[in-house]
């Protein structure tokens, strides 16, 4: 017998399902699938071993750290303190273009720190970028910080269409969950709100945004991995983003939220199998980026509307950005890989994943520059 506590779904679309099964239950799972004549493949034989090998040895990381006045390397996955320290370093090193702001606190009181990169032009459009909304998706904050590093360190060499955008970046939207994956359960997904209904903690922050909250692809059961919370914006992490963006004077034209895994460039709608009237514009930008990724030796990304390409999921951040804030270029990007490593992507994949993501960011910036 396979119980819910013994297995969890990692990823799925209309053609496959990735399921994590605890080691002692693997034999039973094999027999169950074989009996049901369901074809399957074991893609990660030992998840704990993959976790142990995810980061390079500490000795190697120590050699790379502190070379530039901060600990960030993009050859390893870093803790929240390193990320926030590095953001402060950028603000100090490039005060003419970089600044930081605390937009709120997490459930456990950690800072939600945003970096703004701007040339100060009052006519600029604005783009929001976030990562780490799901705690176990370590490649997301790593990729978002990689993008930011490219922007900030090479600002003077960036094309005009990038420099004429105000970039607002929240690398880790779920800091409590992210830290918990480093200290406790590596595969934790939700935030760390304590439950009023028993032992199950956490809310799926990407089901907690207010647009079409509580619809299909979300759950009202606190023990569910896709628990949407007690109400829209019930969580301080999502409420902080909502308050900041709605009260900002920024001219929002782009909203990019980075996740893993699967290699998808997704656009609304996620709450249902529908598309907005300008979906061809959104697809064109995604297709352009995906084509260039392949041409430069990157991975293959699938482009399409979330609800049709993956599955309906109400209460998502990009749906809210498009539905409530009317931000035209709103996307969710599911980063590497396609399933061979799943959430436990080796740190050696950070830089190539970051290069692919920057190609997409560049494509969005060029599209925004053409808006009237």
UniProtKB/TrEMBL annotation:
One of its GO terms (cellular component) is extracellular space. Residues 76-368 form the Peptidase M14 domain. The keyword Lyase does not apply. Its main location: secreted. One of its GO terms (biological process) is proteolysis. SMART domains: Zn_pept (SM00631). CDD domains: M14_CP_A-B_like (cd03860). It is found in: Secreted. Keywords: Carboxypeptidase, Disulfide bond, Hydrolase, Metal-binding, Metalloprotease, Protease, Secreted, Signal, Zinc. Involved in the digestion of the blood meal. Belongs to the peptidase M14 family. This is AAEL011722-PA. The lineage of its organism: Eukaryota, Metazoa, Ecdysozoa, Arthropoda, Hexapoda.
